[in-house]
Amino acid sequence: MTRFVVPALLLVAGVAVPACAQPAPVTAQSGNVRVFDVPAGSRLHDVAPAPDGRIWYTAQRTGKLGTLDPKTGRIEEVPLGDGSAPHGVIQGPDGAAWITDGGLNAIVRYDPKTKAVQSWPLPADFPDSNLNTAAFDGRGRIWFTGQAGVYGRLDPKTGKMDVWRDPEGRGPYGIAATPDGQIWYVSLAGSHVAKVDLDTGAPTIVEPPTAEQGARRVWADSKGHLWISEWNGGQLTRYTPSTGTWKSWKPAGERPRVYAVYVDGRDTVWISDFGANAVLSFDPAIEQWRRFPGSGENANVRQILGADGLIYLPESGLDRIMVVDMRAR
Q1: pLDDT score for 7
Q2: How far apart are CA 264 and CA 268, in angstroms?
C-alpha cells in the first residue's frame, strides 16, 4: 500500500503554498491515491458516482450539491434552496443525483443534463425528520431514512410519498438494496436492522447479537450478505438473511469507531474508522485488513462509494475528497 499524508505545505505547480492559501481546487497525488480540495466550509458529507466519471458530493453546511471532475480537478456547485442541508446522495437509475436533504426535509433530485433541481417535501406531520440516506428498490422507487425515527418511500413516476415511523423510535440511518431489490435499513439509536415490505412498508425488525452496537450504515454484497458498520460496537458485522447467521470483525486499535461501510464490485468491504483516522478495506475471503490513512488529522470519512475500481472517500473534517485507484490491484 502507498502511504499518503497531506503535509502542511502542498506543492502546487512546483511551489510550496501554505494550506490556507491554496487555490481551489488543489490536487495532491501519491501512488494510487489522489486528494482533491473542495470549497472551504462545505463540510461535505456523502459522495456518489456521477455520469462520465465525475463525483457528486453533498456540501451540508452550504446547502449545495457539488460535482468534481477528477480528470481536471474542476468543481461545480449547485444551490439546492434556502435552508438546504443535504446529507446523502446517490445516483438513481435515471442517471440523476437523488439527495436526502435534512434542512429542506425533502427528497431532492438534480438532473445533470438540464441542471434542474426538483424536490419532494415530506408530509407536514413528519417535520424535522433529520433525513439521512437513500436507496432504490428493484421497482425504481427511492427509500429513505430519517434519524428522528422515520423511514419512507417515494415513487418518482407518480410523486406519491409514504412515510412510516420506526417501531422503536429514533435512529433509522443507513439503508441499502440487496441484489434482488429488497430494502433493509439500520437504526443507530435503536441498534437494530429492519427489512421493509416493499408493498406495505411494514418493517421486520432483526436484533444483532451485540447489544447497543449502534448500527450506523449498511451495504449488501453480490451474494446478498448485509455488511453493517457498528458505531458503538466498533466493529464490522456481516448478517446473512438466508441463514440468519452473524459474524463480526473488529479493526485494530484501542477504540475503533466504525462509521461508513461500502462493498465494491469485487466484494471487498470498505469501512471508515474515526478512531484510527483511516479507511480500511477488508477481504472476507482471507479476513485481512488494509489501511488507508486520512490525508490529515480528523479526516472523518462519512460515506464511501465508488465505481469502476475507484473508491471515493469524502473527508468531511478536511473538506477534501480522496480517490483510491484499485484497478491495478
Answers
A1: 29
A2: 6
Helix (H, G, I), strand (E, B) or coil at 213: coil
Length of the chain: 329
**C-alpha torsion sign, points 15, 20, 21, 22:** positive
Q: Tell me how far the alpha carbon of residue 276 is from its chain's centroid.
A: 19
Sorted by where each begins, the domain ranges of the chain are 37-325
Q: Which amino acid is at 262?
A: Y
Q: Residue 265 contacts by C-beta under 8 Å, 6 or more apart in sequence?
A: 308, 309
Supply the pLDDT for residue 328. Answer: 75
Q: Is the peptide bond before 123 cis (omega within 30 degrees of 0)?
A: no
Looking at residue 257, its pLDDT comes to 97
pTM value?
0.90
In the numeric block, the cell 430519517 is attached to 146
Residue 239 to residue 237: CA distance in whole angstroms: 7
DSSP 52: G
Q: Are 117 and 80 in contact (CB under 8 A)?
A: yes
- The C-alpha atoms of residue 305 and residue 261 are separated, in whole angstroms, by 9
CA dist 146 and 295 (Å) reads: 30
Amino acid at 215: A
Which parts of the chain have pLDDT scores under 50? 1-27
Contact 259, 231 (CB under 8 A): yes
Q: Are 233 and 214 in contact (CB under 8 A)?
A: yes
Taking phi over 0 as left and psi of -120 to 50 as alpha, with beta for the rest, 265 belongs to: alpha
Q: What is 259-312 written as a DSSP string? A: EEEEE-TT--EEEEETTTTEEEEEETTTTEEEEEE-SSTT--B---EEETTEEE
Asked whether the beta carbons of 125 and 105 are under 8 A apart, the reply is: no
> Rg for the chain (alpha carbons), in Å?
19
Question: CATH number for the 37-325 domain, one of 3.40.50.2300, 3.30.70.1150, 2.130.10.10, 1.10.760.10?
Answer: 2.130.10.10
| pLDDT at position 33 | 95
The whole-angstrom separation of Cα 86 and Cα 46 is 9
| DSSP classification of residue 35 | E
- The whole-number pLDDT of residue 28 equals 56
